User: What shape does this take?
Amino acid sequence: MTNENPLRDRALTFRSLHVPGRPLVLPNAWDTASARIVEDAGAAAVATTSAGLAWALGAPDGDRLERDRALAAVAGIAAAVGVPVTADIESGYAPDAEGVADTVRAVLAAGAVGINIEDALYEAEAGPLRPVAEQAERIGAAREAADGAGVPLFVNARVDTFLRGAGGVEHTLERAAAYLAAGADGIFVPGAVDPGTVKLLADGVDGPLNVMAGPGAPPVTELAALGVARVSVGAGLAQAAHAVVRRAARELLDAGTYESLAGGLDYGELNSLLGRSR
Assistant: This one.
């Protein structure tokens, strides 16, 4: 890396990891401890989960967390690891395109070199998805803000057609094309894991395809063979961790036993992992 613009160099490294057929695998983190554990496990980059991060800060997911709190957490994660970090910024933590641009500048200031930005809407009267033209404008603003800062931020445009039951392959591809034309670098389609569907999306998207995997989804090797360039797990790790907390708490309170605590990380190992400097 050069010393002139390390953030730019990190962004270029992150871009290079998106290879169809040899996907970037991202076990999503939500705080500095989970980020360091993910990095120590061998991840080439760290992706945040907006849901896990919001829960850790005492807020629900779905555009309910304030931008400053979210990005302060992202900054802590970026400072804690030596690999590139990409931030899930929900729908941009802003009501309009200008606000999205401000968010992107704050993302860069936090040290992240990628974003996920979704087209879902959460107000009951607004419909499940933001209109295509409006979302494209927001993506364009993100792209312009990053380019203005001289950082090739990887903009991963999330299309929530499958997740929200708002369209199939054809509608997804239409949205994907519009978002790529607006400046997105990759397309993220959570909720689509059927091999036939994934293949249609990988072939139809003119850019790297990201899918969200979990129990019941094809293994990474099969997704790779279908042409996927990025595999993430969303809030899956955070949900699994919190399930352990609930299971162990209920066992302790109800039965007075401790078996759910078996298999935990060694205290010294975890303490050492968090205590080391980058």
Observations:
- The chain has a mean pLDDT of 96.
- The longest strand covers residues 114-118.
- The chain has one domain: 6-235.
- Residues 236-254 form the longest helix (19 residues).
